[in-house]
Amino acid sequence: MPLPQSMGRLNRAGPNRLIVHVAPWVPGFGVVHHRGRRSGRGYRTPVAVFRRGDEVVFAMVYGTRTDWVRNVRAAGGATVTVRGHDLRLSGPRLVHDSRRSRVPGPVRLALAAAGVEDFLVCDVEG
C-alpha cells in the first residue's frame, strides 16, 4: 500500500518546498513541471524517477490519484528535470508491476517495503 495521502499533503506544505531545489541533481529523483487541470497554474513536484532507454518511470509512492499524476495524464505529458537536464515527456500511462522490474534492484527493495507496485511510464521525446 503506498504512503497515505495525508503524508503527501504534509510534504507538499513543508519539505517539498526545499526538496524541489535539490531533487533535480540527486540520482533517482527529479522535478516534474506540470499544469493544473482546471487552474492552468504551473507546478513543480519532486518525484522518484528512473530513466530506461527512451522512457522514464515514476514510482507512485503516494498512489495513482495524486494531483501531479492526474495533471500529467490529462495534459498528455510534462517536462521533468533530471540531473540538471530537462526531458519532454509524452504518452503517460499507468503500469501495475508487482515485481517492480522497471526500477533498479536496490530501489525495488525500498518500494517493496513501502508496498509500491504502480508506476507512471512516459516516453521521452527527441
From TrEMBL:
Matches recorded under Pfam families: F420H2_quin_red
A GO MF term: oxidoreductase activity
NCBIfam families listed in its UniProt record: hi_GC_TIGR00026
Entry protein name: Nitroreductase family deazaflavin-dependent oxidoreductase
Native source organism of the sequence: Mumia zhuanghuii
